[in-house]
Write a structure and sequence with these properties.
By secondary structure, the chain is an alpha+beta fold. It has a 4-stranded antiparallel β-sheet.
């Protein structure tokens, strides 16, 4: 298994819209469709315009295929465009890919 942490920074004034799109559209419809397993989504205790989430994949090949499939999804492209009529919701994205240091340290 490999894990991925993504941190999205919202464009000015668009943190709520970014999070709503992620939770109401991306997580419910597109992640399951493309085999992206969401482990959790997080915000900071003090509003900072970020959304952090963690996903899990069988291996690096599965991760690459899932994200390529998601990016090529025309229905996602249309939903994204519809949510960005007043400009992009994201201003930044940081991706970290992780492997467990030891299997015994993972929670079941």
């Amino acid at each position: 298994m490999i894990y991925e942490i993504r941190v999205y920074g919202a464009a000015e004034g668009k943190a709520d819209a970014m999070r709503r799109r992620f939770l109401d559209v991306v997580v419910t419809k597109f992640f399951p469709r493309h085999g992206i397993e969401l482990l959790g989504a997080f915000t900071a205790p003090t509003e900072d315009g970020r959304l952090t989430y963690m996903t899990r994949f069988a291996d690096e090949d599965a991760r690459k295929k899932a994200w390529a499939s998601f990016a090529a999804d025309q229905e996602w492209a249309a939903a994204k465009a519809a949510s960005e009529t007043d400009g992009p919701l994201l201003k930044s994205q940081v991706v970290s890919i992780l492997s467990p240091a030891a299997a015994s340290l993972l929670l079941s």
